[in-house]
């Protein structure tokens, strides 16, 4: 079989680490000898052994002379585990096939150099696009030290996220809602504004079996959130961060007593400086954020330039209403030329609904 076939298998294994390895990358590895798979592995949990070591340890026969397929360049530094390059060199593997290079400055081509310097045959770039896409969150985080932000919303075909009375349950069907739960497992954090807490009182957890819930991040510039809110009442079970501009410790104390972490940040245009918030979350190793905010927070996030990707779930319904909510509010852009530009659109059918997904292109609203 071809290198591409075995790399596809390695990608399937890599996906098994989804949601469990953050802020590390998802990595899969396959050991092949005489056109037979003799070992497989993936990075299972943050802080545990990497894919290459797991694959080599699982071999059903000695891997001498075999080929190792790995979706990401092997690490060559000591972190929570020893360098994978050491294990590969000791294994007797003859050839290593790599999907994508690792942009981590501690690796960044050094792993490949070490293997080649020791006489190992290395093939790079097999299914590079798919392997890089798998770790778009890791690539963004390791290079910027700030979370990858996915802005997600559900709307009707006339662009409404709620009726004129504020009701929004449910716009989309079961398949679309399940996909959102999968993303809550995939991403390290989920972020909303205090307006969403007032309107819906959401729990913001992942309700899938055998999953993990993200860190909950509530933007509440003046600390107005009710102490009776579900996110406050469950803060001792699920890590909850309240981002605020308020420096009033009297206001913050009850939230801290309830188990919330209160992070005080500078303000910008009367609201939380979202760039400063992303820097603070990055320092806490929160590598990704699912933004489930309302129109006001979504506008602020776009304006601040923190959004990497947008997901729009579109339901075959019409709400109408001049005062009904829309996904992005705020003042809006002055003209079409100043629109936020999206790229690489993807379309997926989920039951009766459609998921539109696009990357956000960097742009300046001041130009």
Automatic annotation (TrEMBL):
<feature type="active site" description="Proton donor">
    <location>
        <position position="52"/>
    </location>
</feature>
<dbReference type="InterPro" id="IPR050765">
    <property type="entry name" value="Riboflavin_Biosynth_HTPR"/>
</dbReference>
<feature type="binding site">
    <location>
        <position position="196"/>
    </location>
    <ligand>
        <name>NADP(+)</name>
    </ligand>
</feature>
<feature type="domain" description="CMP/dCMP-type deaminase">
    <location>
        <begin position="1"/>
        <end position="123"/>
    </location>
</feature>
<feature type="binding site">
    <location>
        <position position="168"/>
    </location>
    <ligand>
        <name>substrate</name>
    </ligand>
</feature>
<comment type="function">
    <text>Converts 2,5-diamino-6-(ribosylamino)-4(3h)-pyrimidinone 5'-phosphate into 5-amino-6-(ribosylamino)-2,4(1h,3h)-pyrimidinedione 5'-phosphate.</text>
</comment>
<dbReference type="GO" id="GO:0050661">
    <property type="term" value="F:NADP binding"/>
</dbReference>
<protein>
    <recommendedName>
        <fullName>Riboflavin biosynthesis protein RibD</fullName>
        <ecNumber>3.5.4.26</ecNumber>
        <ecNumber>1.1.1.193</ecNumber>
    </recommendedName>
</protein>
<feature type="binding site">
    <location>
        <position position="50"/>
    </location>
    <ligand>
        <name>Zn(2+)</name>
    </ligand>
</feature>
<keyword id="KW-0862">Zinc</keyword>
<feature type="binding site">
    <location>
        <position position="75"/>
    </location>
    <ligand>
        <name>Zn(2+)</name>
    </ligand>
</feature>
<dbReference type="GO" id="GO:0008703">
    <property type="term" value="F:5-amino-6-(5-phosphoribosylamino)uracil reductase activity"/>
</dbReference>
<comment type="similarity">
    <text>In the N-terminal section; belongs to the cytidine and deoxycytidylate deaminase family.</text>
</comment>
<dbReference type="InterPro" id="IPR016192">
    <property type="entry name" value="APOBEC/CMP_deaminase_Zn-bd"/>
</dbReference>
<feature type="binding site">
    <location>
        <position position="200"/>
    </location>
    <ligand>
        <name>NADP(+)</name>
    </ligand>
</feature>
<dbReference type="GO" id="GO:0008835">
    <property type="term" value="F:diaminohydroxyphosphoribosylaminopyrimidine deaminase activity"/>
</dbReference>
<feature type="binding site">
    <location>
        <position position="207"/>
    </location>
    <ligand>
        <name>substrate</name>
    </ligand>
</feature>
<feature type="binding site">
    <location>
        <position position="221"/>
    </location>
    <ligand>
        <name>NADP(+)</name>
    </ligand>
</feature>
<feature type="binding site">
    <location>
        <position position="204"/>
    </location>
    <ligand>
        <name>substrate</name>
    </ligand>
</feature>
<feature type="binding site">
    <location>
        <position position="184"/>
    </location>
    <ligand>
        <name>substrate</name>
    </ligand>
</feature>
<comment type="pathway">
    <text>Cofactor biosynthesis; riboflavin biosynthesis; 5-amino-6-(D-ribitylamino)uracil from GTP: step 3/4.</text>
</comment>
<dbReference type="GO" id="GO:0008270">
    <property type="term" value="F:zinc ion binding"/>
</dbReference>
<feature type="binding site">
    <location>
        <position position="292"/>
    </location>
    <ligand>
        <name>substrate</name>
    </ligand>
</feature>
<feature type="binding site">
    <location>
        <position position="170"/>
    </location>
    <ligand>
        <name>NADP(+)</name>
    </ligand>
</feature>
<keyword id="KW-0686">Riboflavin biosynthesis</keyword>
<dbReference type="Pfam" id="PF01872">
    <property type="entry name" value="RibD_C"/>
</dbReference>
<dbReference type="InterPro" id="IPR016193">
    <property type="entry name" value="Cytidine_deaminase-like"/>
</dbReference>
<dbReference type="InterPro" id="IPR002734">
    <property type="entry name" value="RibDG_C"/>
</dbReference>
<dbReference type="InterPro" id="IPR002125">
    <property type="entry name" value="CMP_dCMP_dom"/>
</dbReference>
<comment type="similarity">
    <text>In the C-terminal section; belongs to the HTP reductase family.</text>
</comment>
<feature type="binding site">
    <location>
        <begin position="294"/>
        <end position="300"/>
    </location>
    <ligand>
        <name>NADP(+)</name>
    </ligand>
</feature>
<feature type="binding site">
    <location>
        <position position="84"/>
    </location>
    <ligand>
        <name>Zn(2+)</name>
    </ligand>
</feature>
<dbReference type="InterPro" id="IPR024072">
    <property type="entry name" value="DHFR-like_dom_sf"/>
</dbReference>
<dbReference type="Pfam" id="PF00383">
    <property type="entry name" value="dCMP_cyt_deam_1"/>
</dbReference>
<keyword id="KW-0378">Hydrolase</keyword>
<feature type="binding site">
    <location>
        <position position="154"/>
    </location>
    <ligand>
        <name>NADP(+)</name>
    </ligand>
</feature>
<keyword id="KW-0479">Metal-binding</keyword>
<keyword id="KW-0521">NADP</keyword>
<keyword id="KW-0511">Multifunctional enzyme</keyword>
<dbReference type="InterPro" id="IPR011549">
    <property type="entry name" value="RibD_C"/>
</dbReference>
<dbReference type="GO" id="GO:0009231">
    <property type="term" value="P:riboflavin biosynthetic process"/>
</dbReference>
<comment type="pathway">
    <text>Cofactor biosynthesis; riboflavin biosynthesis; 5-amino-6-(D-ribitylamino)uracil from GTP: step 2/4.</text>
</comment>
